[in-house]
């Protein structure tokens, strides 16, 4: 088999890249280790930046998002019992975010790909990358007892933190940066109306809280918990009770509780690998970087990578601009590090860390006082939250 681009991983980044390339007349094959049902079963974030929304529209997969997604013009912070509004649209010249679950984005992309003649292969095993530094890279894999080979021009590694793509780059070539946070987020998904029409990020002496949503009838709540906690130790009743303790009485009284559809504890980590390119292999999304969810940047940074790689490959195939290939990693990393900084900043702003001394707490309080009490500080938060602009690929 031969194609122009092999995409490893059928999560939202791989499928979005595949759809954009297909629309541009660039042949591609998507390989995925899991089944489609398993991919759709992953519960992930649901806040889409302004630029991510535009990219989904450009890919032609936005109809359901535009019909069912919730446009949010602001977000709230809750500190010392005080609610502070951040008017995103007002502070950013009209930009907003969209509440639309990653699962739904993936579903829309899967459906769009099914309607084309583009090839997606699920349930593949033993994926291996060869000759990625040459002009003739290829990928081999096993499926249903047979071994296949795909020759290609380029490989996009969209297969996540534990995938094979990053491991195909020699260790002496890469440098990894990591920060592991000493707590996790216990998340609960329920078919209950959100407690507030905007998301609420809360700092509390008992631990951080995020009141989020997937729709007008489906809510997602998070509690900061020790990494030693287990999901089994948190009954629905205990979760709702703890959440109410971390909210002001007026919000706690409005909270509608219900049976959990999903409950899990996610560890928090910041991770970046450099470079994001090795020869004709390009790392995309979680294969190259992880962010704590506090800044709502995970899926959005993956979409940013897709944006750059898609535009570069389009110019390579349509204009012969192979000189642009070497710009992918530095261009993508500039935006990645800004997203990492914002996620790190939000995590430090709103979580108490074990071992913080009196000076650390005073500095944290000073940051909250400045960023949440001045227009300049609120504008910085708003600009990062709705998403920094993409660089032009020229």
TrEMBL record:
GO molecular function: 4-hydroxybenzoate 3-monooxygenase activity; FAD binding
InterPro entries named among the record's database cross-references: FAD-bd, FAD/NAD-bd_sf, HB_mOase, RIFMO-like
EC number: 1.14.13.2
GO biological process: benzoate catabolic process
Residues of the FAD-binding domain: 2-342
UniProt keyword Flavoprotein, yes or no: yes
Keywords assigned by UniProt, alphabetized: FAD, Flavoprotein, Oxidoreductase
Enzyme class, first EC level, given as a word: oxidoreductase
Cross-referenced NCBIfam families: pbenz_hydroxyl, PRK08243.1
Protein name: 4-hydroxybenzoate 3-monooxygenase
Biological source species: Buttiauxella brennerae ATCC 51605
């Amino acid at each position: 088999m031969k194609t122009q681009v092999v995409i490893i991983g059928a999560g939202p980044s791989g499928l979005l890249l595949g759809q954009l390339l297909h629309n541009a007349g660039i042949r591609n094959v998507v390989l995925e280790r899991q089944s489609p049902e398993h991919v759709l079963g992953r519960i992930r974030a649901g806040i889409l930046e302004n630029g991510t929304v535009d990219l989904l529209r450009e890919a032609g997969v936005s109809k359901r998002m535009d019909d069912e997604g919730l446009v949010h013009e602001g977000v709230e912070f809750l500190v010392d019992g005080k609610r502070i509004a951040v008017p995103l649209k007002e502070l950013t010249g009209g930009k907003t975010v969209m509440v639309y679950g990653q699962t739904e984005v993936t579903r829309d992309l899967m459906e769009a790909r099914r309607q084309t003649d583009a090839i997606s292969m699920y349930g593949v095993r033993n994926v291996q990358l060869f000759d990625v530094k040459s002009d003739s890279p290829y990928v081999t894999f096993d499926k249903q007892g047979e071994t296949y080979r795909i020759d290609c021009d380029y490989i996009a590694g969209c297969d996540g933190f534990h995938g094979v793509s990053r491991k195909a780059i020699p260790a002496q070539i890469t440098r990894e940066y990591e920060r592991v946070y000493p707590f996790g987020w216990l998340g609960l998904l329920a078919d209950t109306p959100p407690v507030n029409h905007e998301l609420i990020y809360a700092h509390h002496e008992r631990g951080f809280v995020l009141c989020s949503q997937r729709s007008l009838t489906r809510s997602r709540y998070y509690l900061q918990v020790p990494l030693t906690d287990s999901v089994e130790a948190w009954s629905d009743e205990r979760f709702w009770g703890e959440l109410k303790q971390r909210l002001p009485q007026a919000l706690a009284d409005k909270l509608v509780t219900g049976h959990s559809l999903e409950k899990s504890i996610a560890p928090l980590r910041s991770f970046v690998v450099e470079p994001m390119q090795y020869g004709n292999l390009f790392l995309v999304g979680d294969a190259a970087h992880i962010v704590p969810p506090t800044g709502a940047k995970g899926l959005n940074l993956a979409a940013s990578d897709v944006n750059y790689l898609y535009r570069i490959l389009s110019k390579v195939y349509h204009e012969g601009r192979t000189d642009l290939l070497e710009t992918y990693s530095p261009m993508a990393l500039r935006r990645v590090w800004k997203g990492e900084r914002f996620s790190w900043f939000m995590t430090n702003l709103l979580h108490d860390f074990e071992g913080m001394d009196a000076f650390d707490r005073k500095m944290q309080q000073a940051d909250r006082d400045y960023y949440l009490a001045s227009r300049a500080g609120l504008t910085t938060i708003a600009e990062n939250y709705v998403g920094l602009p993409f660089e032009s690929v020229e």
